[in-house]
Structures
1.
Amino acid sequence: MKETLRRLARRYLIDAMSAMAFGLFASLLIGTIFKALGMIPGLQILDTIGAGASAVAGPAMAVAIAYSLKASPLVVYSCAAVGWLANSNGGAGGPLAVLIIAIIAAEVGMLVSKKTKVDILVTPFVTLLVGGLLSVWCASYIGKAVDLVSGLISFAMTCQPFVMGIVVSVVVGIALTLPISSAAICAALGLSGIGSGDPGLALAGGAAVAGCCAQMVGFAVMSFRENRWGGLVSQGLGTSMLQMPNIIRNPRIWLPTILASAITGPLASCVFELRMYGAAINSGMGTCGLLGPIGIILGWLDPAYPDPVTAWDWLGLALICFVLPAVLSVLFTIPLRKIGWIREGDMTLPE
């Protein structure tokens, strides 16, 4: 029973959710970057490309999810329409609606796939019927549930930015290092002020960026003696998830980055008021491809950004995303090495 639950959790909460994040990256996120580049005089065509990429976020997510579940080609292709329907009807909760509905549609589609002589008709029909009905009947309620959770986060962030800065930064940062998708979580919860203009969600997105950067930059710098430049790049611009096998062996190596995120989170929300007005998925990316900071900068370029951007904002971005995670993680590591909680080689990455 436990093995079955573990397998299902990996299939749906790790594989499918990570695939959803890749689908968002390949559509909405890259589309947002193209639209920003399209603001440059003479490059307006890039704005058109970006708008087109962003418009197919739902199909991209659903196809990626079905592919991750190893669905047959006809199921994968049919999930494109399912993704569009789920995302359109899910409102602010579109990404979560796509995740849930695409999984169900793909699994049901696989039950009939290649079981009849008219597979080319039966498989797409069943997949789209199940996904379409769920999109019409359930997606809006999933969206309302996400609105409720997002509203609670926004309210708490507005009332208690210090406490919530710690909570959001630590939790999202931990999710980034675990084999689950922090980017998908941030996208599903809509941790951004884009569209809604919600200042609480914008602050939550900034705190999430702080937590993710603390994990990635922190592990990259404090394990430099073991992993040198290759490790610095692979963790600092790739993912701190590379440290998971080492964390399992010695969970204490996680303390410095978690403590760093508990400091940078409230600094981001209370002192620098770092806000995410880029795509919500950026909030959970950290320094992976520098997409966390890029998301904040793209938000600054949006005409809907509520305030003028000053040198203070740029200073805060540099400190929260790069400088403080590096300095704090090293400072916290020193006493832990002295007392033997972290030993030489504990953070060495596998070849």
Note: The mean pLDDT is 92.
2.
Amino acid sequence: MLGDYGVRSWRGWHHHMTFVILALAFLVRLQGRFEKTLRA
């Protein structure tokens, strides 16, 4: 399982997933801001 993500440890997998979730949250928030400016 860990080999599929290109990490070698459980800690590395958690760090990777943390950054993935943060990036997703950033993009969702950015998308919401663009939708608000297009509607106005």
Note: The chain has a mean pLDDT of 84.
3.
Amino acid sequence: MSIVTAEIIAIGDELLYGQIMDTNSHWISQELDAVGVRVVRKTTVGDNRTDILTAFEEASKRANLILITGGLGPTQDDLTKPLLAEYFGCEIVEVPEAVAAVSAYFTRRGREMTRLNILQGHLPTCCTYVPNEVGTAPGMWFEQKGCYWMSMPGVPHEMKKLVKDFVLPKLSQVFDLPVIYHKLIKTAGIGESWLADLIKDWENALPNHIRLAYLPSLGHVKLRLTAFGEDKKVLATEVDEQIHGVLPLISSYVYGYDEETLETAIGKLLKNAGKTLALAESCSGGYISHLITTVPGSSNYLRGTLVPYHNDLKEQLLGVSSATLMQHGAVSEETVREMATGIKKLFGADFGLASSGIAGPDGGSPDKPVGTVWIACAGPDFVEAKLLQLTQDRMINIQLTGVAVLNLLRICFLKHNK
């Protein structure tokens, strides 16, 4: 069974200008991956004859399947159809069935069809007409130059219907598709290079048909295991065996798998144990509370939150002593310990979380530069605090603080609830 490769070509100046985000290519990649087709290149090209023809030629050398979106409108700047006809050396002629479908589309909506709309029912003689039931621009399927090609409108809902109804069933007819199986291991609290060093021997021993990729993001590193073969159940078992082998090395950093988020994992821990949580957020400004409340059912374990930005509120509401604030400042281990303990007591929660720091871009000092953040977790009989030394970017600092606070809760929960 050979590997089936694909290239996605997105056409339109608006994509290059940043006026429209190319969500089509992302969605198509997911659909192709699910059926075992490997996307090897995504190309974005503007409304330029030479550039489009060059993209066609280069794609034909790289991939077995080429999926094209955009450029099928009725105006002169829509070049995809005439350039496909030019590339394959065929004429564009009226296809009565296609014209009738466009006409019916306008009739259903009580609108008059123009001459330009009629031209959307004119297609290259070398393509197979693929009806577009939710729009006016038909799909076009080509089997040329050793490749299979599909041209579709750039309108997302039109493209998706064509992929679901025509492209995916067609692929199973023209290709002997392999199986690709993915599994994500999600970690927090460790950087990519440190993680790679921990598991290098395990990674080097992976079988040839199982590959590992590191997918870092703010505060997280995802390990993606991808297995190639013919039987999904067999691949899933093999990947699970590999995960079982690596977990002893990284289990303290692993919070979940696949679509699970850190806030979802925290929610499960609290809900299953019947424990509750309260937060006092200074520098994170409610961001951590936002993450927690994105999880359905969070009202079962979240008691409440405060954003005590001003020191007076830290004193009056959370019981942070004026002596602590005077001697150590708001951004200090001593202050966040008292904040975490105070919010836990105030809301009658099992756990209290606190953050206080200098998010930036102003407010730093030589002793406490921008990016200095203290976080704390208070439990039934403990308080643990941690210093974060982050970046110069305010939003990045807020996001990293959110991940770090939730991960601190996870670590404390597992440590003290054995």
Note: The mean pLDDT is 95.
